[in-house]
Design goal:
Layout: E1 2-3, E2 6-7, E3 13-17, E4 20-21, E5 27-31, E6 34-38, E7 46-54, E8 58-68, H1 81-84, H2 94-111, E9 134-141, E10 148-150, H3 171-186, E11 201-208, E12 215-221, H4 228-240, E13 244-251, E14 263-269, E15 273-277, E16 280-284, H5 294-311, E17 316-320, H6 326-331, E18 337-342, H7 345-357, E19 363-367, H8 370-376, E20 381-386, H9 395-404, E21 405-413, H10 416-428, E22 432-439, E23 449-455
Length: 457
């Protein structure tokens, strides 16, 4: 039926066979040629669904009944799977997850990038449980008992799921959060109310080291000074756990969804933890950008290092969007010189510390915006590593990367769609994509990290 030029489905209850899987983690089916996205559905599921939303391009549906499950479907291992929704792919076996992620990347490369080439198999994660080394829990409070709640938001809402045990993060993180709940309530610490913009404690942030099991705890507060009760809470946390190296407070008085404010103060202990990638040791602070799954990250760093080692002899390397210069530091062993460019000043300071601690002589750090730096740069590089945020690179950055690269570009991406878009631009401007290799960094979710090797003529 067509209403005001929009196709409307006559039936609201349908039986569908799921055909594909979308990058957003939904099953895809068709009914009379009309595309329907089904929440929590997997390819080859036969499901009874209810249409909950539709427009002229597609419809959204929820599962009422799984009539015949996909062979890849399994029982989720987390008790909060349905309530939390953070690990939406837990209903798929791990091998099936890897297959789906490869298809996500392959579809993006072909349909968005227009490249007729095969993507390699996804490199599995070394750990599929207790791998997440960074947690960021928003907090809230019950109205009557003032019990503190902390956990992830329910899907498509800002209602907190009070998580007592999360199987994908180290057990000590659960213990620390539970202690903060109890001690915070004892101290009558209020929690932030998003609607009223009142309350003190906004988020609990923990950085965990897979190297030595140490933890850095940051209490994010809706204040611009350290409240005495927050200082008492921080002291109690520091004294309670032997494996906590430091407790910080971060000030965030913005009326936004931003988790961390600009200023962080260490109240007790140290303001960093150590993490190791291959043979290099890094310092990580509360707001340092660093991969949440260090063991999987090691796979990626090792892969990039091997590409450079096997294809270039003593190259000059540009490490762009460098963060704490992790790529630059790791590949320094197989490079003549490395220049790492990062606009965040605190990250560049940490990078300088890491270089000194690892006794590295051939890595230079520059604090600058990548796009601006490339535009103004006249030096050429044998290989350029691009590791942009999810939005990918703008055309100026890609154009300048092509201009400045004498041999190739290694593009590391956390978003297959923007990777495919950027590869299309590079190919249209004379480059050649040699291979594309996905890595599983975010187990049990549709997210996938991908490394593309690009040859520049």
């Amino acid at each position: 039926m067509i209403v005001n030029g929009t196709i409307m489905l006559m039936e609201k209850i349908l039986t569908l066979k799921i055909e594909n899987f979308s990058s957003s983690g939904e099953g895809m089916a068709k009914h009379n040629g009309f595309v329907i996205f089904v929440e929590n559905a997997l390819p080859d599921d036969l499901v009874k669904v209810e249409i909950i939303k539709e427009n002229k391009h597609f419809a959204k549906a929820k599962i009422l009944e799984i009539i015949k499950p996909s062979k890849g479907r399994v029982k989720p291992f987390c008790a909060l799977y349905n309530a939390c929704g953070a690990c939406s792919l837990q209903s798929a076996s791990y091998d099936f997850q890897l297959k789906l992620k490869k298809e996500i990347v392959q579809d993006a490369i072909r349909n968005i990038g227009g490249l007729n080439m095969d993507v390699q198999d996804v490199e599995p994660a070394p750990l599929t449980k207790e791998f997440r080394c960074k947690i960021q829990y928003p907090t809230a409070q019950t109205k009557v008992s003032k019990r503190i709640l902390a956990g992830y938001y329910k899907p498509k809402s800002h209602e907190i799921v009070n998580i007592k045990h999360c199987p994908i993060q180290p057990a000590i993180c659960d213990e620390i959060v539970e202690y903060i709940r109890q001690k915070g309530q004892e101290l009558n610490i209020s929690c932030y109310d998003e609607k009223k913009k009142t309350g003190l404690l906004r988020h609990i942030v923990i950085r965990h080291s897979s190297l030595n099991g140490s933890n850095l705890v940051t209490l994010v507060v809706n204040d611009d000074t350290t409240h005495p009760d927050i200082k008492t809470l921080a002291q109690n946390i520091f004294q309670k756990f032997e494996k906590i190296t430091g407790v910080c407070v971060n000030f965030n008085i913005t009326k936004s969804n931003l988790i961390l404010g600009k200023e962080t103060v260490c109240l007790f202990g140290e303001d960093t933890i150590e993490e190791k990638i291959l043979d290099k040791t890094f310092k990580i602070g509360a707001n340092t950008f660093f991969q949440v799954n260090p063991k999987s990250a090691e796979n990626i760093f090792g892969y990039v290092k091997e590409i450079i080692k096997n294809n270039y002899k003593e190259p000059v390397v540009l490490d762009a969007y460098a963060g704490i210069a992790a790529f630059g530091i790791v590949v320094s062993d197989v490079a003549k010189e490395v220049l790492s460019v990062e606009e965040n000043e605190s990250s560049t300071k940490l990078a300088q510390e890491v270089i000194k601690n690892n006794n590295i002589q051939n890595v230079q750090i520059k604090c600058a915006d990548t796009g601006n730096f490339l535009t103004e740069c006249s030096e050429k590089f044998d290989i350029i590593i691009l590791d942009p945020p999810r939005k990918g690179c703008d055309e100026t950055t890609l154009r300048e990367a092509l201009r400045l690269s004498k041999g190739g570009i290694i593009y590391v991406s956390c978003n297959p769609a923007t990777l495919a878009r950027d590869l299309k631009y590079l190919v249209q401007n004379g480059a050649r994509v040699k291979n594309i290799k996905p890595f599983d960094m975010f187990c049990h979710t549709p997210h996938v990290e991908t490394v593309a090797l690009i040859e520049v003529s």
